[in-house]
Amino acid sequence: MGVLDGVRVVEFGGIGPGPFAAMMLADAGAEVVRIDRVGATRYPFEDAMVRGRRSLALDLKQDAAKEVALRLVAGADVLLEGFRPGVMERLGLGPEECLARNPALVYGRMTGWGGEGPLADRAGHDIDYIAVSGVLHTIGPAEAPVPPLNLVGDFGGGGMMLAFGVVSALLAARAGGPGQVVDVAMTDGSALLAMSAYAMLSHGQWTDERATNRLDGGAPFYATYRTADGRHMAVGAMEPQFYAELLERLGLDAGAVPDRDDPANWPALGTLLAETFAGRTRAEWEGVFEGSDACVAPVLSMREAPQHPHNAARGTFVERNGRIEVAPAPRFVGTPSELPPPAPAVGADSRAVLAELGLSAAEAEELLAAGAVAEAPLTAGI
């Protein structure tokens, strides 16, 4: 159960942003059937992102399997696919064929460069998409850009935009509008995530040089500092009242500290703050800033974060089969989301889905014998 209870989604299996979007929909209560490739395997780390689905394994090179996919699409609200432009059309499962079967269908397409444009057919990864959107240039020290994992393109500018896009189009379709294609490009999405920086740049409040601005590590009051034990504290004391408390907790005389409003003083101020933080361990600084509004927090590792009292109290992380997963987000007070079932084996639900589509047991056996459909024991993940 969840806010998307009753929404039926067909996901064509892939990696990265498409599965992330499908996970978000499943976490919110949508019924998601993932079409996996016959013989497909998954890396173990992918399983967390494939939670909450059912798996139907099809060999889409066979016409009989394509027909099964189209029958599934005919009863769906949303389709998600993340192949390079033209792949679904060559399979006979492009928007034209699918919308002919289901005119109200929301057809969600996830690509790096988008469905059109000079780069549309070129291969790429998150780092390439955010490079062209201008976002990568803004991240890292002055010497060179640093990729922020694959969070900005794949997941923020990709998967989350796809989830938002298909839900928006679904609302329009349920209000009486037609189904439609939702074209999600990681270049577009990552650029949108940087809209505030682009706006500040346009108004002369941002420079195009890394580590010279208030939010990119240039400002010493919005930065990280190494502690005596080699760990770090994060400082985000932007507002004057928070900055004043920061100086007080650090034991610094506000009157003797370089004026932070003059960027020319930032190097000297940064050196002073760095020397101060280096004098104590991270744990000691956590004690100093306990209960404070100085906007200072410990920089936790990924192994530490699940144990932090705040995360533990909110249940931000959960443990399943001895492994850590992140709980569904956002949270809905009226219809709380529960942790969905774990990822199914590839083809685990093939027979059940075929039966729901109205195929007889004999027809299912024929498809299985032909290899158009497969079951979990034959396609178990690694």
List descriptors.
alpha/beta; 35% helix; 382 residues; seven-stranded mixed beta sheet; three-stranded antiparallel beta sheet; single chain; elongated; 14 helices; 12 strands
- What is the rounded distance between the termini? 30 Å
Main sheet characteristics: 7 strands, mixed
SSE succession: EHEEHEHHEHHEHHEEHHHEHEEHHE
How confident overall, as mean pLDDT? 96
Kindly provide the radius of gyration, computed on alpha-carbon positions and rounded to a whole number of angstroms. 25 Å
| Lateral arrangement of strands in the main beta sheet | 6-5-4-1-2-3-12
Report the helical percentage: 25-40%
* pLDDT < 50 runs, ≥5 residues: none
Number of strands: 12
- Structural class label: alpha/beta
Beta fraction: 5-15%
The backbone outline, from C-alpha atoms, is: elongated
Task: Work out the helix count.
Answer: 14
